[in-house]
Amino acid sequence: MLFLARFVRLIDSLNDAVGRGVAWLTIPLVLVTFLVATLRYGFSVGWVSMQESYMWLYGIIFMVGAGYTLLHGGHVRVDVFYRPASARYKAWVDLIGTLFLLLPVLTLVFIYSYPYVITSWKRLEGSQETGGLPGLFLLKSVILVFCILMGLQGLSLAARSILVLAGHREFEINEEEHEGV
Amino acid sequence: QDVREWRMVTTWPKNFPGLGTGANLLAEYINKASDGRMKVSVYGAGEIVPAFEAIDAVGNGTVEMGHGAPYYWKGKVAATQYLAAMPFGLTAQEQNSWFQYGGGQEIADKIYAKLNCKFFPSGNTGTQMGGWFNKEMNTIDDFKGLKMRIPGLGGEVIQAAGGNVVNLPGGEIPPALQSGAIDATEWVGPYNDLAFGLYKSAKYYYYPGWHEPATTLENFINLEAWNDLPDDLKAIVEQANRATNQMVLSEFVARNNQALKTLREKHNVDVRPFSDEILTNLGTLAGKVLRELVAADPLSQEVFDSLVAFRAQSITWAKYSESAFMQARVLPFKY
Amino acid sequence: MSGEVLSLLMFAVACVVLLFGFPVAFSLGGTGLAFALLGHAMGVFDMPLLGSLPSRYFGVMTNELYVAIPLFVFMGVMLERARIAEKLLLTMGMLFGKHRAGLGISVVIVGMLLAASTGIVGATVVTMGLLSLPAMQKAGYSPRLSAGVICASGTLGQIIPPSIVLVLLGDILQGAYAEAQRSLGNWAPEPVSVIDLFVGAFIPGMLLVALYISWVVIQSFIDPKSAPALVEGKRPEGLFGEVLRALVPPALLIVAVLGSILTGIATPTESAAFGSVGATILAACYGRLDLAVLRHVTRQTVQISSMVFIILLGASIFSLVFRGLGGDHLVEQLLHNMPGGLFGAMLVVMTLMFVMGFFLDFIEIVFVVVPIVGPVLLKMDISPIWLGIMIAINLQTSFLTPPFGFALFYLRGVAPPSMKTWDIYRGIIPFVLIQIFALILLAAFPELATWLPSVLLK
Ligand code: NA
Ligand code: NA
User: Fold this and answer.
1) Residue C70: which of A61, A98, A100 has the nearest Cβ?
2) What burial letters (b/e) apply to B212-222, b meaning 16+ CB within 10 Å?
3) Is residue B121 within 8 Å of residue B218, measured between CB atoms?
4) How far apart are CA C149 and CA C124, in angstroms?
5) What was the ipTM of the complex prediction?
6) Counting ligands in written order, which one lies closest to the CA of residue C435?
7) Distance, in angstroms, between C173 CA and closest chain B CA?
8) What pLDDT score does C256 carry?
9) CA angle A92, A98, A104 (to 5 degrees)
10) Residue ranges per domain, chain C?
11) pTM for the full model?
12) Count of CB atoms situated within 10 Å of the CB of C236
């Protein structure tokens, strides 16, 4: 149990740090997009590489931030039954869900993405657009990063659920209020 | 008897005029000629994979074959873009001759082996149009600061001319052109441009399409799947591609004839030629830009050298044959 | 069992799995994967098809249109932190409060203004619940009417542009419409863009605003006690100046964002960036911009965008397997053989979405249902703008329908314990009926959606 508790804390702090870091990328996302539009309308200049850089930021933000979002309970659940249920029910759902839904899906995505990303690295793939960014293989690698961070956070969720089921109430999840869309 | 059920992914929206129908045609020929031993089904862009992921899906065996245009893969293997179209390069017939008798097929196979694919030319748009402009283009200086959506090697040349190359998703092009977010866009030729409704958003329709004098479409086949075919099926696939290649070009010529008429007569489109001064300057820039680009990559250099050698011979022969005749044909005589 | 039967079974199983409450993205993806394996074992599904997943994911990561979504989210959360809504609510309340139904009307108007300047449902309902609800209670408004009007007005952001649903719908309808038209032999279909949908949604959005206001007024006449005037409603000195000060900044933002989209000066993504910068400047002007706010805004942006797109990735597995099993052909046959032709098919699809909206969130419906039924309906040669707006209003309604209506939850979260959950559920009924009425109007008069784009954009 001590091991599980340590594991939960380790993974949670990892994804929290990653998420907080990635959150700051939203500021360059706003500024670069703003700059691209302003330069084009105001000064008739622009670079495709700059256009692509905000697309990269967008892709990195939601993929790398996915584990962080799970940590903070940000991935939407259909909570007709879940929300009012007991902590034990929630723990069971999270444990079984992680083992039979989340981890298999991420494993599948990882298995199919690995060769896809490796091929891209071997070709040192760049943008297909004129004047686009080189290093597209780095962006593709984000899919693997997503699988790993999300998978680890899933394992943390499962470990947390086991702890709750074993009576460690301090590991119960208090869902935060979310803005929704 | 075992039937080879193959999937063909395409970079075109399903049934896209000319381009997507070429893929349909190819599948139909293969299915009929193989007498049921092969069953190819066609998928539009996004149905299995997004358009620009088609070659990876074929290379890694998710599906067996694909249909697209070689310049889409330049991010993966830079040399592919020269197989599609070269600014101020070859006409459709010359391009086909280069593939069959100028060493083109061999070089293409070498390039596509890097993508784990077998390559066939499988359609050609013929000479395209220069694009839709909301600014009059009188001299090369008019390209300075021009906001144009023009992908590929043509884009490199426009950039060298001081233009501002913009990248937009298809659906956003007409509103962007309408509002002045961009000043110009190239698309394909009258047939596709009419269908896309670009005449509603732009003032001038310039010609010729110096940047894509004849764009080769392609069929790419997973190498393992290709090597696994018996010789007779290989021959069927090869011939089906030759037939498709010819049929697509024929379709473009026929439909462009009609569409240009519609654009001019029904929609009163102002169709204008680029001046000799503009074309001369763009041609000079094209040569410079291309030479710089290919110098960075041996395979690109190889395909470029081969194309340029073929181009030099073709120019001379065309001067005595098709160019001369086409000028003769429009002399003011009654016919 | 054939693949098609399996695909239907998969749909049913997914609905059950979702109800357990594990995150939607993985409930959909996991169910899809299980049925892929089952289909493979039964020889009706081709596993290599799943090899397209990385390509599909990368396609989502590089979709230019979708960049608008994190930007609109950024803008919305920033506006919420800038407390623009509070200023608006307070001054509007003072302006209209002394009339019967006045507070209710001011809630609808503020809801509309917030909706037009981005419109994150959660933030809007929470803010209005925190600020207007106490005022309405103090004035003696019936709990039901207060709850209903706050929840309904809070969801206007879904339909009044800019709207995330419309961006997602635009992307799906674009391809589906062109394909449908080509299969009908129309080689020159008019392209549909997100901008078309934004423009098309304008009048229907205003129609809903008018209907909400009408209902509040009607209610105040039927039962004057349910929507009384403020008793101590003396207008303070200088109210007009206050109103201007509260109204002008968001109005400028709305003009900048909506104006740049509707006139086509900027792409939706670019105007979202303008909006984000504008919202940040506003927050700074109000003295609300500091490191803590910036942290909150950026982190919320990550979480909300990630939630939306990870569901898309999960739904992508689901729909790939659905297609691989032949489910799309089955749906096509079903809808084509529907008695009543187009009318029958539309009725079935709209009812289906409405019912799914009781249990599912709009994102699941957009990603799972629309890609399947959209192309089939469009092949019946209908306006994609009209279809898009019909779907959008239907999805907006899903925020309001119990048991799983986001707006209801948000209000429950901030309403005082004295307001019963039952009041919220009862209070929303007239507004759900209004939504249905608006759908019927739009079905009868498609011009409500198609007219404005036809004059403004062509
Ligand atoms: Na909105
Ligand atoms: Na609902």
Assistant:
1) A61
2) bbbbbbbbbbb
3) yes
4) 12
5) 0.84
6) 2
7) 11
8) 83
9) 145
10) 1-11+22-457
11) 0.85
12) 8
